[in-house]
Amino acid sequence: MDAFSALADPIRRDLLVRLAAGPARVVDLAGHHAVSRPAISKHLRLLTLAGLTTAEDRGRERHYRLDRAGLTPIQELLAALAPAPPFTERDLDGLELEVRRTGRDRRATEADAAATIAEETA
Amino acid sequence: MDAFSALADPIRRDLLVRLAAGPARVVDLAGHHAVSRPAISKHLRLLTLAGLTTAEDRGRERHYRLDRAGLTPIQELLAALAPAPPFTERDLDGLELEVRRTGRDRRATEADAAATIAEETA
DNA sequence: ACTATTGGTAACCGATCGGATACCAATAGT
DNA sequence: ACTATTGGTATCCGATCGGTTACCAATAGT
Q1: Residue B1's closest chain A neighbor by CA?
Q2: Is B33 helix (H, G, I), strand (E, B) or coil?
Q3: Which of A28, A59, B29, B37 ranks highest by number of CB atoms within 10 Å?
Q4: Positive or negative, the Cα torsion across A78, A80, A82, A83?
Q5: What are the helix (H) ranges across chain B?
Q6: Where does residue A61 rank: exposed (0-12), middle (13-18), buried (19+ CB within 10 A)?
Q7: Contact with chain B for residue A79, Cβ under 8 A
Q8: Is residue B96 within 8 Å of B113, Cβ to Cβ?
Q9: Are B91 and B101 in contact (CB under 8 A)?
Q10: What would the pLDDT profile of A85-119 be if each residue is shown by its tens digit?
């Protein structure tokens, strides 16, 4: 089972979103869905085969964890289909935060775009 | 049919990648696959229902085109599962190109991360 | 020791999927 | 007008999918 087919089911997508908040046991995950526990078990096994989750046995419990590395095939397809612009507004916001964190006192001319981005508002 | 299920089939993914290079007719797309032409037709109809492609009739031909807007559900899921860092190396590369394009003569100290990024190598 | 909890597996079922073949409609070329 | 090209639709088929119930193994709690 590949990652794409794994994402095709809405229950499996929901499981992944829940696991994004942290590891969880099967019963906890099953509690949020109308389907039976074995059905959730099957979904989790499938997600693990797809490389999207990992499982760790802790006593009688099994803790499932999101494995973000399994998402790369999807990210690669999106990159092939939706070529990203040089940088986005999001990137600029992130950059500004980073500069605010690492920056020191410096001056910038308004003619310089990069300096304007980096300028501290304080 | 939702976008996730649409991406679950490798032939459909290949069709989308080919359409990313520009619109194409059914026969052209079918020529690259071992399956029959009606099978390709079905895939294309499904992709259109999923909002991933659009079709335009031109005489007896039908031109299919990639509709990138249909990718947003997938992008949103990825964003929910793989929270992006403040900025990535990719962003820095893009930023550097942009600064090289708009930047003027300016000096930068090596203690300033943003300035280092923006520094022109020339 | 007994019991409850956790969770995987097996067997089965109906629905859906992906494919083929056969057929038809419409446009283009001669 | 005839013919070729393009492409959708219909019908059927086997395989897979997602779900259930029933069952079993193992650990934890008393």
Answers
A1: A8
A2: coil
A3: B29
A4: positive
A5: 3-6, 10-19, 26-30, 37-49, 72-81, 89-102, 113-118
A6: exposed
A7: no
A8: no
A9: no
A10: 666 655 555 555 555 444 445 444 444 444 343 44
| Bases on strand C under 7 Å from any protein CB | 5-10, 17-22, 25-28
pTM of the model: 0.77
Judge contact between B14 and B33, C-beta under 8 A.
yes
What are the pLDDT digits (tens) for B24-63? 999 999 999 999 999 999 999 999 999 999 999 999 999 9
pLDDT at position B91, please?
60
Checking each nucleotide's C1' against the CA of B58, the nearest proves to be C27
Strands A61-66 vs A24-25: parallel, antiparallel or unpaired = antiparallel
**Tokens describing residue A67:** 């494995």
Q: How far apart are CA B81 and CA A13, in angstroms?
A: 10
A50 within 8 A of B110, measured Cβ to Cβ = no
